[in-house]
Amino acid sequence: MADYREIISAYKDVPGGIIEAYHAVQREYSYIPEDAVVFAAQVFDMPKAKAYGVATFYSYLKVGPRGKNVIRICESAPCHIAGADKVVAALEKELGIKMGETTPDGKFTLEFTECVGQCQATPVITINSQPYGDVSADKVAAILAEYK
Amino acid sequence: MAEEMRIVLRNYGKVDPLNVDSYVQAGGYKSLAKAKGMSQTELIEEVKKSGLRGRGGAGFNCGMKWSFSYGVKAEQKYVICNADEGEPGTYKDRIIMENDPQSVLEGMAICGYAIGANQGYIYCRGEYPYVVEILNKAIAQAKEKGLLGDFNIEVRMGAGAYVCGEESALIESIEGHRGEPRFKPPFPPVVGLWGKPTIVNNVETFANIPAILEKGADWYKGIGAASYPGTKVLTLTGDIVNRTVFEVPTNTTIRQVIEEFGGGIVGGKKFKAVQIGGTSGGFIPESLLDTPIDFDSMGAIGATLGSGAVFVMDETRDIVDVIDRITKFFAHESCGKCTPCREGTMRMHEMLHRVKKGGASAGDLDFMERLGTVMSKACLCGLGQAAPAPVLTTLKHFRNDYVAKFN
After folding, report:
1. CA torsion angle for B77, B82, B83, B86 (degrees, to 10)?
2. pTM as predicted
3. Predicted ipTM of the assembly
4. For the structural domain made of A69-145, what CATH number should be given?
5. B355-395, pLDDT tens digit by residue?
6. What's B225-314's CATH class?
7. φ and ψ at A113, to 5 degrees?
8. Which among A22, A114, A120 has CB closest to B243?
9. What distance in Å separates the CA atoms of residue A71 and residue B123, rounded to the nearest whole number?
10. Residues 30-89, chain A: which have Cβ within 8 Å of B?
11. Looking at the complex, does the CB of residue A98 fall below 8 Å from at least one CB of chain B?
């Protein structure tokens, strides 16, 4: 795994580049380590509080550990009426964890998200940003099998 | 039978989005050359005359906006394409960028010439990393062929904040800050990115520009509704047979959209309500379905065209449950900068939840109306101003659904 210090430093000269740097760290780690936020504050010459404020403002960024594979379930209105709650129940049962939790082996994290722009096929989930549409409870096991 | 009309999606399925040559063969980049043969003021006048209004939801005259930036003397100006498509139920910008990215780049370059900017940014939502790849390839190919001239375009990724669809919040985000809206005035065309004059237009707005230059302002002005000419790309979701994307002239009625393009309600059920423009749009009952979709006609019935999302609900849907979900969305997405929105969205959700659980009374509905009215006037940006619309319009058109929840 590439060191977050190298990843962040590569964006040093990009104006306003801290968000791009956070994205790059997250692509590698699947989250942003706390220490990476402190390091980013140095690189982009801002108070730690501000670097932390930016990282925690955006719901797509996650400070602190989470699973290798991030499963996000859309709960916006079109997915809501299409039965997103049944998909949530199936995912929780299949993985043995509740929404917001990570499996003990660190492989999967379950998160809610708002609309991911794939509303032609509600309900929608994403795994590491890859969308899966028209998801139903009976499809969940097969989708997860790709990542186990 | 109403028919689809493709201007924005003119190249959909016809060009290879990953091959700039196929765009050029389809007539691409001729409009940029034509634009550069005009003076900047002639070009802006042409765009203004076409009547094109912003397709992101605010509906401001595009050429007029450009003229504000043109009129400011500055060493550096910027063009930003707003691709932070976050309105639930909307995926039109993704469809445009996935299928015809060069149209968007060409539209941006034309804007760059018009206002005197050589740097552009596309702010693409973080949920679309696969679109970012397409855009980066498209930019690299256009640059390699020298098609963009001295105009540079860089893609920046959003990170899951709905409020960043608001142009000043978007600018804050590109600058690397929390995406909180700025106080206005000054407006971005005068003081924008890094304090410089900046035009922020939506993906769909930019994709219209090359077609307008090619065929002329008079041609465009003659399409659809007189006060909001052209077409609108709509995305149909919910209890509708054809959950897909259409582009229609703006004088098409809501009923035509639902029945003719959408194929009606799934399973032969009855229609209950449609919400247009995304999750901040008003709810529309059956009695108003003959309204044309254009910006002003929708405004006249207390609704919006917004992003063009069309979310259809059948007779079995629980309106209060849907509104409960929508108010939770706004409580989550409020950036917290201004008090009416930060507190209002939270209290509104609290009250909706109480209605849903059967713990509310008629007086609560009056409180909700009062809070919603205050928010629509007092909130700093469009997020908070539009957030109460679903509540207020359902209290108006579907009040019995609320009353039925009382214990």
Report:
1. 150
2. 0.97
3. 0.97
4. 3.40.30.10
5. 999 999 989 999 999 999 999 999 999 999 999 999 999 99
6. alpha beta
7. -140, 165
8. A120
9. 24
10. 44, 53-54, 57-61, 75-78, 80-82
11. no
